[in-house]
Design brief:
By secondary structure, the protein is of the alpha+beta class. It has one domain. Helix content is 48%, strand content 20%. Strands 3-2-1-4 form a 4-stranded antiparallel β-sheet, with helices on both faces. It is globular. The model has no long low-confidence stretch (mean pLDDT 93).
């Protein structure tokens, strides 16, 4: 089961595979308000949620401003947020996401960004 989940995540997240709107509607839509509150309470800049069922994957990304991105739009937004590190970060997160999903939980990742000051010339 873990291999099936890992393969589905790799296809959807790293190979731009199709995501399932039906799975989002069935498994995730009812949690949106709760996840918005959690994102705000945790003071995350954005948070993304992933589920998998029989090889289908669905994803939600919620920003601090309560913008909601679903499936491919969520993946595209995350790619823009992690413009130089998307593939690397997803590969790092895959084992934990796979474990959570195989244990019947959503894969949830909250992200806080840091604004690095731009170096100034002296």
């Amino acid at each position: 089961m873990k291999n099936r989940i890992k393969n589905a995540l790799q296809k959807s997240l790293l190979e731009n595979g199709e995501m399932s709107m039906g799975l989002y509607e069935f498994d995730m839509q009812e949690h949106i308000d709760e996840w918005i509150n959690d994102t705000q309470n945790d003071n995350d800049d954005y948070c993304f949620f992933i589920t998998e069922n029989r090889g289908d994957v669905a994803m939600v990304l919620i920003s601090r401003e309560n913008e909601i991105f679903i499936n491919e739009k969520a993946r595209e937004k995350l790619m823009k947020l992690w413009i130089k590190a998307y593939d690397h970060n997803i590969k790092l997160l895959l084992p934990t996401m796979t474990r959570n999903l195989s244990n019947g939980f959503f894969a949830i990742t909250g992200v806080k960004t840091s604004n690095q000051p731009t170096p100034t010339k002296s």
